Amino acid sequence: MSNLQKEVERLRGERNVVANKMKGKLEPSERQRLIEEGKNLKEGLATLEEDLLKLTDELQQEAQGIPNMTHPDVPIGGEDCSVIRKKVGSPPQFGFQIKDHLQLGKELDLFDFDAAAEVSGSKFYYLKNEAVMLEMGLINWTLSEVMKKGFIPLTTPEIVRSSVVEKCGFQPRGANTQVYSIEGSDQCLIGTAEIPVGGIHMDSILAESLLPLKYAAFSHCFRTEAGAAGAATRGLYRVHQFSKVEMFVLCRPEESDLYHEELIKIEEDLFSSLGLHYKTLDMASGDLGAPAYRKFDVEAWMPGLERFGEISSASNCTDYQSRRLGIRYRPSEPSSASPKKGKANLAPPRFVHTLNATACAVPRMIVCLLENYQQEDGSVTIPEPLRPFMGGLEIIAPKSR
Amino acid sequence: MGLQSCIGGTTLQTLKLASIPTLSSSRLVSRPVQLKALTLDFFLLSRHGRSRRSPFPLLARALSAPAIAFQTETPPEEKGNAVLKPQWKAAIDFKWIRENKEAVAVNIRNRNSNANLEAVIELYDKMSDLQKEVERLRGERNAVANKMKGKLEPSERQRLIEEGKNLKEGLVTLEEDLLKLTDELQQEAQCIPNMTHPDVPIGGEDCSVIRKKVGSPPQFSFQIKDHLQLGKELDLFDFDAAAEVLSLFNLSGSKFYYLKNEAVMLEMGLINWTLSEVMKKGFIPLTTPEIVRSSVVEKCGFQPRGANTQVYSIEGSDQCLIGTAEIPVGGIHMDSILAESLLPLKYAAFSHCFRTEAGAAGAATRGLYRVHQFSKVEMFVLCKPEESDLYHEELIKIEEDLFSSLGLHYKTLDMASGDLGAPAYRKFDVEAWMPGLERFGEISSASNCTDYQSRRLGIRYRPSEPSSASPKKGKANLAPPRFVHTLNATACAVPRMIVCLLENYQQEDGSVTIPEPLRPFMGGLEIIAPKSR
Hints:
Chain B: Its EC number is 6.1.1.11. Chain A has helices at about 1-20, 30-65, 100-105, 115-120, 130-150, 160-165, 195-200, 255-275, 320-325, 360-370, and strands spanning about 85-90, 110, 125-130, 150-155, 160, 185-190, 205, 215-220, 240-250, 280, 295-300, 305-315, 325-330, 350, 355-360, 380, 395.
C-alpha cells in the first residue's frame, strides 16, 4: 500500500506538471499532446486510486485482527498459566449441609426461572422480594463507594450502533456472537457499559486538563451466551440479562499502569468490605481479549458451586480502543515562552489510554452473598455495608406459608 | 348445506377457504389423507375438561363469561400443519358477543376501533355449523367402525370399508377447513376491543373528564428554564454524545441519553423510594426480563410487528424488547389456574423499557419527554372480577399519593372512550404541570383491563368451594375456573418525573431543590447545585 501510495503521488505530481504547462502559451499540436497525456494520467490515476482504496480496506481488515501488545509481566501461556496476585480470606466453615444459590432462592422465594423460561426463554429470570432489594442495595452502595473515589456516575443507552461495538473490540456479527442485534437496523444491545461509555468521547480531542476521566456507569447488559452450556451455567451464574456497575477510565498513556492498579484496588476493597473470600489473577497471554494489554480477574469462592467463580475483570486496553474510537487528547504546551499563538505551537494530539473494570456484576454477587452468608435455619445474613442501602434489612428469613 | 354460499365474502381476510366438496363426490379420493391426531383433539369438546362449556352468571360488563372450547396453548404438533397467525388463541366468548351484538357494536364505534364485528359473527356461525358437520361425520364414521366389528358378508364389509374411507377423507378436509376458519375467526375477533365502563365519557381525547386536581402551578419571580437547559447547565445529561453513539442527527433530538452526576442519584432515588412506598402497600417487588417472546407481547394487547410498531424486535428470533414491565409480569402466570386464596396478587416491577416511538416527532418530543429507553416502576394486579373496580381506585390513589408527596401540581383524567387502548375497560391518566414545557404532561396511566389480557394469557383462578358439606372429593366438586381481571398502573416513569422535578423545583441561582421524601434515598442530598468550573 505504501508503494501504491507513492505511485499515486508520483502520478498526481505529473498530472499537476501537465496542468501547469497547459496554462502557458502553446502550439496547438503541443497542447493536443498535453491534453492526451493529461487524460492518460487521469485515467491511470483513477484506477490506481480505486486499487489503493481496496488495498487500504484489506489492510485495515487484516490489521484490526492484530491484538494489543502485552505487558511484560503478563504470564505467557493458556489459562492455567494465570498467576495469583492476591488471595484474601478463606472459605467459610459451615456446621451444616449447605445449599447452592438456586435452592436458597427457591426456598426464600427470591427468584423465578421457570416463569421466565416460558415468557422469554432459558437463562432469563425474575428477581423477587428481598433479591430486588439486594440488587438495588448492591448498585446503590457500589455507586456511592466509587463516587467517593472521584468516579462520575452515569446511566447509558443500552441500544448502540454496531460500529461502536466493533470499535471497542467486540464482534457483533460473528458466529457465536455474544451480541443481540435489533431487527431492521444497525443497532445492537450492549453486553457491557464499557461500550456506550467508550463511545461518549468518540472522534474527539480532549484537553489534557480533563484527564483522567473516571466514569462509573450503571446499565443492564445483554449477552446471547451462545456456545455456553453445562452445569457451570445454572441459575444466576450465566444469564442473558443482568445489572452491572462498570468503571471506565480515560487517561494519558504514561498513567495507565497506575490506574490499572487503582482499579483493581478499588475492586478488591469492595469485595473485602463484603467479606468475600477471593483471589485476584494476572491473566495469562492466551486468556486476554484482543483489546487488553493486561487483565486482572477476581474470582470469589462460591460454596454452593464448590469452586471459585469470576466476579469481576479489570483490563488496561492502552490505545487499542482509543485508536478505533478516535479518542485523543492535546498535551498542554511544554512552555509558554513563545508569544506566537496558533496551531504551530500546540503539541500534536495523542491517543488516550482506556481501562475498564467491573465494580459490581449483580447476579454473580447475589450468588456469592447467598451461598456464603446462608445460615443453618435457611436464612441469609446481609453484610453490614449493604444494610443502609436496603432500608436497614439485616437478614433474609424464610417466609411462613 | 349452504356452506358454499357463505364462503368468500369480501370481509374475510387472509386465507380463502378451500371449497368444501360434497361428500358424495368421488374427487375426494385424490386428496392425500393426512390425519394429524392433534387437530381432532383440538376441537373435541367432550374429552377435555378445560374446554368444557359451563353455565355461568353473565356479568354485565366485558367478555367475562367463560370461553368455549379453545385451549390457549399452542399445540406443538400444529407446527407441522399450515398454521396461520395467530398461533395462540384468545379464549374469547363468542356466544356472549353474539348475544350482545348491539352493545359490542356501539362500543367498537365509541372506541374508533376498526374491528369487524359482522365478520366475527359470520365466521363464528360458519364455524359452529362446520363444527356440527364434523361431529355428525365423526358419528357416522364411528357407526361404521362399530358395524365392522360384527360378523359381515364380504360384500357388506367391502361396502362399509368404502364408506368408512370416504367418511375419513371427507372428515380430513372438513377438519382442515375448520382449522383455517378458527384461525380467521381468532384473528378478527382479537381485534374487538374490551367493553367500556359505563362511567367512561364517550368521545375523543378532548372529552376526557378531570376527576381530581391537586396543587397549583408554582409562581416564579425569575425567568425559568426548561429541563434541557437545566440539565445542560447542571451537567446532568448528555443527548449529543448519545446521538453520536447512535448516529442520529435529526433535529428533533436523538431520544437516547446518558444521565450524569446527580441525575443518576435522582433516578436511583426515585426508584428506591417508589419501590419502598408501594411495598408498604403490599406489593411484591420484582425485576423482570426485558427480552420476551413476541407472543407474550401480543397476548397483552400490543402489536409487535405492525407498521409504526412501538416494539423493538431481536434479529433472528421471535423475541422482542419490552415497552413496559406489564408484559413480562402478565406473562408470569400465563396458562395457569391460581388458587383463589392467592388473589389479589399485587406486583411492583422495576425494569428498563424500550419503545421505538415511530411516528412521534416535534417539539413535544424534545429532551427527556419522549425517549427510546427509560426506567419505570410498574404496578400490576391480578384479582377476582368483582374486585377490579375497587383495585382500579386503589391504584390511582397510590399514584396520586406518590405525586402529592413530591409536591407536584397535577390532574387525574378519566380517559374518553376514543382514547382507551384496546385492552382497557377504563383508564385514568395523571398529567403533571411542567413549567418549562408550559403545559401538563402525562406522568402515569392506570388501566383496568378486566379479562381482556387474562383471556389471551390464559390466567384463571379456581373459586373456593361454596361449602365443604359433601364428603366426596375430586374434580366434580370443584367450581370451574374463571378468568382473573388484570390491572396495571405506572408508579414511576423516571424521565418524566425528572422533567417535573427539575422544572418545578428550579431556583433563581440555577440550582434545583430535592423534594424531602427523596432525600434519604439520595444519601441526604438536598440540592443540585451548579458546579464551579
